[in-house]
């Protein structure tokens, strides 16, 4: 992954206005859970990993099986109703592995990285009309004050616009994390916060601005697509999630489509081989429960395909239709 766009954290911290940092910290946990939620304009092809959220992984050495579960990074009660088989597999597992273990340090790092360096502001990168539109949406829908918006990097503003609204509750990943801790189970991360920051910064800034501008101009459609995403997630339709578009295909200018492709490559496909490599030792040891955003499972470049290429047997486990609410909700 190209890391040449990363900015020194210390420099960013020195340039941070005091009032902005607490607001950015509140946003950071939501941003960290949203990288796989971004609406990507691409056509999905039916294939072996087009459907299914829950998978059994058998290592080639014949050891104990592990499981992979696709999550959705939205705080919706329906997504939190884990199937009995999922809860049983987690309870019987040796370790839980998430995309990222969110803690105070990762939230701080993400909040710092989400800002432009000193002397730069978001309104300098956009037309006055488009910046006003972004500022208005962030203020009215997400409760982000203008003094925070003006310092946001384009990618952080774009990620925010792909949230359905202010975060009010747990995501599936956070629920699994809490359950594992109650079971005295170790929790590991497949990535570091620096890796996730690099995935966004690898997209050239000009393309970040194009994505942000397009999402703001069609924001009602973006929010509608997030709702459709949840519907398809509950149907275990991985291809359907990937085929969602935040703009009708015929209305996408070529430069915006290229920016969408760059986002897809960096934020989704580019991260899958590394996650598979870091998951492999956990699977080899047996009894791992691995939870990642559902889009990481889809298709021939997804996490499941990567594991299969390395000799693991990958089998879909049908979810029980009679899902039960988690007792803690």
Describe the structure in brief.
The protein has helices spanning 9-14, 20-32, 84-91, 104-113, 128-142, 146-149, 154-161, 172-182, 193-201, 205-217, 219-234, 238-242, 254-268, 272-285, 303-309, and strands at 54-58, 66-71, 95-98, 187-189, 288-293, 313-316. The chain has 329 residues and is of the alpha/beta class.
Describe the structure.
- With 329 residues, the protein is an alpha/beta fold.
- The chain is 47% helix and 9% strand.
- The chain has one domain.
- It is built from 15 helices and six strands.
- The protein has a six-stranded mixed beta sheet, sandwiched between helices.
- The longest helix is centred in the last third of the chain and has 16 residues, at 219-234.
Largest sheet: 6 strands, mixed
**Helical fraction:** 40-55%
Distance between the termini: 39 Å
Category by helix and strand content: alpha/beta
List the helices and strands in order: HHEEHEHHHHHEHHHHHHEHE
Write the layout of secondary structure elements.
Layout: H1 9-14, H2 20-32, E1 54-58, E2 66-71, H3 84-91, E3 95-98, H4 104-113, H5 128-142, H6 146-149, H7 154-161, H8 172-182, E4 187-189, H9 193-201, H10 205-217, H11 219-234, H12 238-242, H13 254-268, H14 272-285, E5 288-293, H15 303-309, E6 313-316
Parallel strand pairs: 2-5, 3-4, 3-5
Antiparallel strand pairs: 1-2, 1-6
Helix pairs in contact: 2-4, 5-10, 7-10, 10-13, 14-15
